[in-house]
Amino acid sequence: MKKGLGEIERLLFAYVQMRGQAVVRAGDLIRPLHLSAPRERKLLSRLAKAGWIVRVQRGLYLAPQKLPLGGKWSPSEALALNTLMKARNGRYQLSGPNAFNVYGFDEQIPVRLYAYNNRVSGDWKIGALDMTLIKVADSRLGDTAVVAAPDGETTVYSSRVRTLVDAVYDWSRFNGIPRGYEWIRRELTARRISAAELVLCTLRYGDKGTIRRMGVLLEKEGVEEKLLRKLERALTPTKGPIPWIPGKPKRGPVAGRWGVVVNDEASSA
User: Fold this and answer.
1) 188, 195 in Cβ contact below 8 A?
2) What are residue 57's DSSP bridge partners?
3) 67 part of a folded domain
4) In this structure, are residues 53 and 47 in contact, taking their beta carbons and an 8 Å threshold?
5) How many domains does the chain have?
6) Could you give the CA distance from residue 206 to residue 212 in angstroms, rounded to a whole number?
7) In sequence order, which residues have a C-beta less than 8 Å from that of residue 111 and are 6 or more positions away?
8) What is the pTM of this model?
9) CA 240, CA 100: separation in Å to the nearest integer?
10) Based on the domain organization, do 150 and 171 belong to the same domain?
11) Three-class SS of 70-133
12) How does pLDDT run across 55-102, given as a tens digit for each residue?
């Protein structure tokens, strides 16, 4: 046991190791360690400040099965996120940069987690892990894939198709346009996704802007007309076309069927 830990701290870690569980809740230690509630609270707070355990939220902590040599410990991404969501009785799925990397769209390894969920909104920190939690309606959660983590935990990601739709739908948050267009082209060419899957996912999880932009892209890719009509039926006439690439001047040909100014000829070729 790490030098400097007192008797009560050693008992805490022995208790955690005996149970084989990382989660420690306020009240768990009162009976087995013969503590009062205030003393337990001070113990957990002291260990969290020292970096030996990690606070997830008020009254909920994660503790290691074995203390690292350096003393500081941080849980895995999967353990931290799963613990928080379970405590909030919520659902989540990782998307954006995390999913871009998992599916090989982007080689850059993100420094924080981006998770759609139905409980929490805002930036969150658990140990050394930084998270951006994006609260959405239950209806916007779905089309997922479960990925096993090295520590035995599982992580829920948006599926390959859903990730591509998210790149266009949440373009401002994830920097998904125009690079998402190229990813979609590449995935369709390689037949890792189908146009039918992409249309279905777009209709279910996209907004009007996503449908318009996806319509332009798929029409340029020569997708069969019956799939394009499915997208078109979800739209209403618009007087103000949106840009193909947001943030750039709205100069270029107008795809009238979709209400989109194709303002990047390279992307629309």
Assistant:
1) yes
2) 60
3) no
4) yes
5) 3
6) 10
7) 130
8) 0.91
9) 31
10) no
11) CCCCCCCHHHHHHHHHHHCCCCEEECCHHHHHHCCCCCCCCCCEEEEECCCCEEEEECCEEEEE
12) 999 999 999 988 777 668 999 999 999 999 999 999 999 999 999 999
